Amino acid sequence: MRSFDGMTAVRGIALLAAASAILKLGGLALAWNATAVAAQPVATRVDAACGADGRSFRELLESVRAKSDELARRESALRTRESGLAATRRIVGAEVTRLEGIAKALGVTGGAGDGMSIGKVYESMSPEQAAPILDRLDDVTLRAVLSRMRERQVAAILAAMNPERAVAVTKAFASPAGPAPGR
User: What pTM does this model have?
Assistant: First the structure.
């Protein structure tokens, strides 16, 4: 058995001190490295984690940026369209108010039972003026208007209407439920 002398104890203490110093330096090195890594931009850190070139993260990041730009562009376009629609509503509202004022000044009102015949209004228009307006009416309203007009005027308006719409109107009037136009 070996004897334990003072020199061996000193060597043991020196080794423990050296090991302790190495561990402290290693801890400082790790802390310094962690601080340096934390100071790097996220993209650089993720690139390093993804591999040497980090292409997949960059591609993902570029894709997200492109989608964000596209969404911002679409949002801007929607805002522009909404403001255009609001302006159109204001213009149409002002025009309706103006036309109501003119109708009131002429003594023509749009209420039911006031003696005004919408058929007479459209009969007073040229077929070229009436046809585009009547083209846009729904079938029920168009039937009601045309049924209050003379056949000759209805014929002229049908001739000026969109051909597909004129066919649909003719079929509607030819059906058993449809009123016969004219007086």
Answer: 0.35
